[in-house]
UniProtKB/TrEMBL annotation:
Name of protein: FadR family transcriptional regulator
Ranges for domain HTH gntR-type: 10-78
Domain of life: Bacteria
SUPFAM superfamilies: GntR ligand-binding domain-like, Winged helix' DNA-binding domain
CDD domains listed in its UniProt record: WHTH_GntR
GO molecular function: DNA binding; DNA-binding transcription factor activity
Keyword field: DNA-binding, Transcription, Transcription regulation
Xref: InterPro entries: GntR_C, TF_FadR/GntR_C, Tscrpt_reg_HTH_GntR, WH-like_DNA-bd_sf, WH_DNA-bd_sf
Native source species: Shewanella holmiensis
Organismal lineage: Bacteria, Pseudomonadati, Pseudomonadota, Gammaproteobacteria, Alteromonadales
Gene3D superfamilies documented for this protein: GntR ligand-binding domain-like, Winged helix-like DNA-binding domain superfamily/Winged helix DNA-binding domain
Length: 235
């Protein structure tokens, strides 16, 4: 079921936790399924009991498993998983259901990002507006050169800056902790398609001019764009 971990710059208990987490996130380990005993897991991974217990603490903190005396360790129901945990988002990458996961993420963006753009148009500082200007110019250059790598990097920073510019402490963590999933999403949705530069231009110019209603509307157009092939995967 599992493979032994190797010495690396990554701590042993994190390697163990990652393997177990990916089995859970991929569905290979079902909800409410009981994990092998502590002794069996130690043998499978080739780790000490201390390292294993540190890994189970990590997984428990993310809502993936729970341990009970005389019962053992079982996988918790999906409703308990902390999907916005940055480490969990990193572990979920390149699993078989990544495309479906990203389509759900698009649904979340549709729900909150238009309002973030409207807030940024109202509250962005001079420095944040200057930073958006630099990023947008880089996006234009990337689109002209069909440079997907540069587009992905600058598009990610563009949207992250918008969240930071909302002056709302509940939006700011969203922009920070989802940097990994933003990059993955933008890369998957842009590759092979157009860059949606005009939609981004509308958002950028609306924020620069302080027009909250237009910033919100342009963001809705961007996220409803059928060119983003992930949009067609929303259930």
């Amino acid at each position: 079921m599992f493979v032994q971990v190797e010495d690396s710059s990554r701590r042993i208990h994190v390697q163990v936790a990652r393997q177990i987490a990916r089995k859970i996130l991929s569905g290979e380990l079902d909800e409410h399924q009981k994990l092998p005993s502590e002794m069996e897991l130690c043998e499978m991974f080739g780790v000490s009991r201390t390292a294993l217990r540190e890994s189970t603490k990590l997984l428990s903190a993310k809502g993936l498993i729970e341990s009970r005396p005389k019962v053992g360790t079982t996988v918790r129901s999906r409703s308990n998983w902390h999907f916005l945990d940055p480490q969990l988002l990193d572990w979920i990458q390149d699993l078989a259901n990544t495309e479906t996961f990203l389509s759900k993420f698009l649904g979340l963006r549709k729900a909150i990002e238009p309002e973030a753009c409207a807030l940024a148009a109202t509250y962005a500082t001079i420095e944040q507006r200057k930073h958006l200007s630099v990023l947008f110019q880089k996006m234009v250059q990337a689109a002209e050169n069909f440079d997907y790598a540069q587009w992905t990097e600058n598009d990610h920073q563009f949207h992250q800056t918008i969240y930071l510019a909302t002056d709302n402490q509940f939006y700011i963590p969203f922009g920070n902790i989802l940097s990994t999933i933003f990059k993955l999403f933008i890369d998957r949705s842009a590759e092979g398609g157009r860059f949606c530069i005009e939609e981004h231009r509308g958002i950028y110019e609306s924020i620069m001019s302080g027009d909250a209603d237009k910033a919100r509307a342009y963001c809705q157009v961007l996220l409803n764009d059928d060119n983003q092939r992930l949009a067609n995967m929303i259930n």
